[in-house]
Specification:
The protein is an alpha+beta fold. The chain has 13 helices and six strands. It has a six-stranded mixed β-sheet. Strand 5 and strand 6 form a beta hairpin. The N terminus is likely disordered.
Length: 345
């Protein structure tokens, strides 16, 4: 079995999560209905088993869509279609988990097709929604409380397949490439199973995944140890706080790129900026405009990152790509609609 590029790794499906795709997908295109109430004749005797697939579905949908909010909607739609079927139809499904995954994959494929049109109308650059580390969320360092145990961010496994660089490369793929690659290389579905979801032949899906791998390889940077990446981001934070422009320039690759996402809701760069000196000067300007800003070291999509807060409110989440001793890319998410898991009380 072909594995993805080593920089990004692969998410091996946990024991008990893997289920083979069944041909029983009757009702997959049913309209949304309300899940059953207690006593309803549609009540599923294996409800706990069906609902236990939610984590898997959230993980799949987030990687495919790059949006936690959209992933939640996909999961809700998937379960709605399950309960739109009669009890007899549900009992005829050999593997509910495979059925749910098939439906979620198809819903994501449809959304990816329409997302391109939506993002053409998006104000400024679109960056995938950043996710905090579970321990930081629950420990209160990102403003979390015990109620956050039910937050979908807690259910997204933070590995190399959700780091920002990986998600940005996925954005460059066609919807079919993205679905085929994520299902096969990340979630380890066979191409026969992928074909049922994508609606193409196994051979065609193999070609889609191969094309996606080429995109991944083309975007790779030399691997940097995790501890070194954390040191570089920490040094960036300290230089920014000290307003040491020379130190900042030294930490930035001469060809570094910075992308900012405000979504037209808050101020942000409308286009990427390039060059170490230009980005360092931009960082200094931000520091001058926001004297009360606090910079915190946080894990962003499984990688060292920074969070900017004012008066205890998260205003930006920054993800970094580091090669060697320098930052090569910065993604700054400011759109408050994408900062929901980071919002402090």
């Amino acid at each position: 079995m072909t594995r993805p590029a080593s920089q990004f790794g692969a998410l091996s499906r946990r024991s008990g999560e893997r289920s083979h795709t069944s041909n029983h997908t009757e009702g997959a295109d049913a309209t949304m209905t309300v899940p059953p109430e207690p006593g309803d004749d549609r009540t599923d005797p294996s409800l706990s088993a069906v609902m236990s697939e939610r984590r898997q579905l959230i993980n799949l949908a987030y990687r495919l869509l790059g949006s936690l909010a959209d992933a939640e909607d996909v999961v809700q739609e998937t379960y709605a279609r399950w309960y739109a079927m009669s009890r007899r139809q549900r009992e005829a499904v050999e593997s509910p988990g495979a059925w749910l995954t098939t439906v979620a994959g198809r819903v994501c494929l449809d959304l990816l097709g329409s997302a391109r049109a939506r993002r053409e109308r998006y104000v400024g650059e679109w960056i995938p929604e950043p996710l905090p580390d579970r321990t930081e969320l629950l420990g209160g360092r990102a403003g979390g409380t015990v109620t956050d145990l039910t937050d979908p961010a807690d259910r997204v496994t933070l590995d190399e397949s959700v780091n920002m660089a990986f998600l940005v490369v996925l954005e460059s793929m066609t919807p079919a490439e993205r679905v085929a690659f994520v299902l096969h290389d990340v979630f380890r579905y066979s191409f026969a199973e992928v074909a049922e979801i994508v609606g193409r032949t196994p051979a065609a899906c193999r070609q889609l995944a191969s094309s996606a791998r080429r995109r991944i390889r083309a975007a790779q940077v030399p691997a940097t140890p995790a501890a070194r990446r954390a040191d570089v981001v920490r040094d960036f934070k300290r230089a920014w706080e000290a307003k040491d422009i020379d130190a900042l320039i030294g930490l930035l690759d001469p060809k570094v790129t910075m992308v900012s996402d405000g979504g037209g809701v808050v101020s942000a760069l409308l286009r990427p900026i390039e060059g170490g000196e230009q980005i360092a000067r931009y960082a200094m300007a931000i520091a001058d405009l926001a004297p009360g800003m606090t910079i915190l070291e946080r894990t962003v999509n499984g990688q060292p990152g920074l969070v900017a807060q004012r008066d205890g409110v998260t205003e930006a989440v920054m993800a970094f790509e580091v090669a060697g001793d320098r930052v090569t890319r910065i993604w700054a998410v400011r759109n408050p609609e994408k900062l929901r898991p980071w919002t402090t009380a």
